[in-house]
Design a protein that fits this description.
Elements lengths: L12 E11 L9 E4 L10 E3 L6 E5 L8 E13 L9 E4 L5 E3 L20 E5 L8 E7 L2
Antiparallel strand pairs: 1-5, 2-3, 2-4, 4-5, 5-9, 6-7, 6-8, 8-9
């Protein structure tokens, strides 16, 4: 596991374009991709770590216990952890444990015989570095 941008720590934002505060539904670790979890009338939904294929709202910028409020980067540049290899410039989506993984190009067969998945709802952003599995590095988050 390599640290591809040692000047900042995991979950530290290099650029903040949009930031929201949410209540943590469960424990969250700084740098995890989070998803909206539970709706409570009169409040914004709470958040929890995103899993593979979940719909992200952003990246947590601090650790939080259940019930604490956590700042979430919705748009900007932040350091995260890769699940699998990610080529530079690739779109990234949610992965298990609040990590990110590369979005594979999807072959489209207009004849209707191919089965494929398009990951529109689980997109987190774009890789600003080339990651190996377990590396930490920078992505541009755009969950707005």
């Amino acid at each position: 596991m390599a640290d591809l941008y040692p000047a900042v720590e995991l979950g530290e934002a290099v650029k903040i374009d949009a930031l929201l505060s949410f209540k943590a539904e469960t424990a969250i670790t700084k740098g995890q991709v989070v998803k909206l979890d539970t709706h409570t009338d009169g409040e914004l939904g709470s958040v929890s770590p995103a899993g593979d294929g979940d719909k992200p709202i952003g990246v947590a910028l601090k650790d939080a216990a259940a019930g604490d409020y956590v700042p979430v980067l919705v748009r900007g540049i932040v350091k995260v952890t890769a699940a699998g290899a990610i080529p530079l410039g690739s779109k990234v989506r949610t992965a298990a444990g609040g990590k990110v993984q590369a979005v594979d190009d999807q072959a489209v067969d207009e004849g209707g015989t191919a089965t494929y998945t398009i990951y529109y709802t689980s997109l987190v952003g774009r890789a600003l570095q080339t990651f190996a599995d377990g590396d930490t590095g920078l992505i541009y988050v755009d969950c707005s």
